[in-house]
């Protein structure tokens, strides 16, 4: 095995590890969704885009499309399973209107990948054309995956809060983009290099936004908690649990026994 092949394999394995971190990085978010039984303001778009991206790249890495791309198949095949779990959780814990939208998008994605697979393997018989067609589609969807958080980024800028833009997802996206861009240059594969290079830039923007609005996010969360505590105290007072002080004003009791 040549030095270039060894280097490509090593970078590919590292890419698999980082990509796995990317796929698992939203897990804490979905644990919260499961506990609260609600998706709140979280958007399903990044996960639907990631699922579509994994499906087309799995097809691209198959031996009959692009030989010697086993590491592309392994990580994207695993990604399909993980992202499908996330999408299913959205279907379970979304309201009826959002659930219908998610279901329709998922159905369209499954129809699309089935059609693309059949066309690629039965209609296109030239290997180079097959790589070009599937690779171009992969490139477009990969850019779409990296760009999908733009809707969340808009929410961040509007609300000056990064509460609904998970930090570890942005960080894993950055590491993933850097690694697969490097992989694509040993030897050069434009279908992998271009979208991952663009994805790296998108991820940098997300990290900058996170650093910019982290402080204001903490202030908003603290203010919201303080408001909840005040409302809780008002409920206690409304129940008639009060303790007069020396100035004949009411002191709010934090506990039923006034301590």
Question: Would you mind describing this structure in some detail?
Answer:
The protein is mainly alpha-helical. The chain has helices at 3-24, 27-36, 45-61, 70-93, 96-122, 127-147, 150-159, 167-183, 190-238; strands spanning 242-244, 250-252. The termini are far apart.
Q: What are the salient characteristics of this protein?
A:
single chain, mainly alpha, 2% strand, elongated, disordered C terminus, transmembrane, Bidirectional sugar transporter SWEET, SWEET
Overall structural class, as computed from helix and strand content, comes to mainly alpha
Q: What is the averaged pLDDT score? A: 84
Helix content: over 70%
String of helices and strands: HHHHHHHHHEE
The main β sheet shows up as: 2 strands, antiparallel
Strand order of the largest sheet: 1-2
Global geometry: elongated
Count the E strands: 2
Measured between the Cα atoms of the first and last residue, the distance is 75 Å
Tally of individual helices: 9
Low-confidence stretches: 247-259
What radius of gyration results from the CA coordinates?
24 Å
Residue fraction in strands: under 5%
Pfam families: MtN3_slv (PF03083)
Organism: Crotalaria pallida (Smooth rattlebox)
Function: Mediates both low-affinity uptake and efflux of sugar across the membrane.
Subcellular location: Cell membrane; Endomembrane system
């Amino acid at each position: 095995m040549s030095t270039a092949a060894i280097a490509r394999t090593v970078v590919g394995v590292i890419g698999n590890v980082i990509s796995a971190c990317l796929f698992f990085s939203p897990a804490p978010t979905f644990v919260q969704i499961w506990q609260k039984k609600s998706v709140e303001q979280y958007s399903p778009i990044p996960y639907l885009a990631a699922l579509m991206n994994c499906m087309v790249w799995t097809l691209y890495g198959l031996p009959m499309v692009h030989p010697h791309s086993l590491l592309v198949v392994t990580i994207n095949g695993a990604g399909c399973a993980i992202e499908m779990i996330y999408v299913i959780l959205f279907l379970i814990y979304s309201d009826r209107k959002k659930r219908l939208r998610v279901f329709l998008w998922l159905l369209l994605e499954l129809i699309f990948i089935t059609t693309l697979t059949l066309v690629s393997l039965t209609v296109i018989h030239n290997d180079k054309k097959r790589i070009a067609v599937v690779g171009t589609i992969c490139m477009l969807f990969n850019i779409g995956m990296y760009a999908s958080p733009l809707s969340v980024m808009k929410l961040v800028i509007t609300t000056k809060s990064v509460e609904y833009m998970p930090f570890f997802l942005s960080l894993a996206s950055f590491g993933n983009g850097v690694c697969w861009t490097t992989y694509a240059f040993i030897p050069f594969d434009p279908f992998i290099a271009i979208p991952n290079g663009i994805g790296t830039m998108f991820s940098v923007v997300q990290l900058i936004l996170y650093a910019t609005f982290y402080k204001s996010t903490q202030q908003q969360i603290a203010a919201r908690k303080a408001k909840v505590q005040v409302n809780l105290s008002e409920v206690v007072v409304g129940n008639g649990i009060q303790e007069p002080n020396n100035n004949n004003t009411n002191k709010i009791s934090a506990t039923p026994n006034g301590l």
